[in-house]
Design brief:
Length: 218
């Protein structure tokens, strides 16, 4: 039987988790992806033992922090994009929302990448990106010779722009516009054959930002 005391304990635990995750995103933003858990606990106003009870290791903490960020900043845009009758406009909505989120949360993403959890958490985004592209192709709004791997690489290219701009800059919008022009079937030059995406570790040196939003198995 649920008691008032047990409900209060669950509510307290939920509030602690919320504070810890928001603190983690703030501390990562200020101190970088290698921020210490002690600093995150201090910012959240909890003891380090409380942090470890909620998140037994850094991997689980950064996964949850990234999931919180995606739920708040990307999931609503994904829903809007998928419900848009114009798949090209839906693609614009999704790309802009993703780049905006990455610009704000670049250190949380870097921490998640270091922990090896980025691919699992961002896979639904990539699935939506590919779905919108296919809808656009079916509607004649996106060039027909694109393959799913192209969208993964295009997303990586766009994200790489962020590492050459200031944290508050929206200069990435210029390159979204360029990419969207390149996705148009109007006046498109036939593409050379696509090549498969190499698995992690098969390249000599892959910049960490190129691994952001890598799908599972890629």
């Amino acid at each position: 039987m649920t008691t008032d005391a047990s409900r209060r304990l669950r509510a307290d635990a939920a509030r602690n988790s919320e504070r810890i995750l928001r603190a983690a995103r703030e501390v990562f933003a200020e101190s970088g992806p290698d921020a210490m858990l002690d600093d995150i606990a201090r910012r959240a106003g909890v003891g380090i033992a409380t942090l470890y009870r909620r998140f037994p290791n850094k991997e689980e903490l950064v996964r949850a922090a990234l999931e919180q960020s995606i739920a708040e900043q990307l999931s609503p845009a994904t829903e809007q994009a998928l419900s848009d009758d114009n798949p090209r406009q839906g693609l614009v909505t999704l790309l802009e929302a993703a780049l905006s989120m990455v610009a704000r949360e670049r250190n949380t993403l870097a921490a998640a990448d270091n922990a090896g959890v980025t691919a699992d958490v961002t896979a639904p985004f990539l699935d939506s990106l590919v779905l919108l592209t296919r809808r656009g192709q079916q509607a004649g709004l996106i060039r027909a010779d694109l393959v799913p791997d192209d969208m993964q690489r295009i997303m990586g290219m766009l994200i790489s722009v962020l590492w050459s701009t200031g944290p508050q800059s929206d200069g990435w919008r210029r390159y979204v516009s360029l990419v969207l022009d390149g996705l148009s079937p109007v006046g498109a030059t036939p593409l050379p054959p696509a090549v498969p995406v190499l698995e992690c570790g098969k390249t000599n040196a892959e910049p960490s930002e190129a691994r952001r939003f890598r799908p599972r198995g890629g």
